[in-house]
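Reviewers of the previous submission asked for a worked example of the structure-prediction workflow described in the proposal, so we include one complete record here. The input consisted solely of the amino acid sequence. No template or homolog information was supplied to the procedure at any stage.
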Amino acid sequence: MVKVVGIRFRNAGKIYYFGPGKLQLKAGMHAIVETARGVEMGTVMTDPREVSEESVVPAIKTGHPHCD
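From that input alone, the workflow returned the following structure tokens.
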């Protein structure tokens, strides 16, 4: 199992999932993450949760958000 958090970059945008690393992220916090478009700030929309390894895209496994 892999731990992920959901992050949204726009008010009505899609939620993208990133590995929180050692950070204690909660819904409502802001996080800065490395995306395919570069470094972006978003809002954590979901508390950390565990998902199966098979359902994780390789890019998610290496995402490292930084919280404010």
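The CA atoms of residues 32 and 66 lie 5 Å apart. We consider this example representative of the routine output the project will generate in years two and three.
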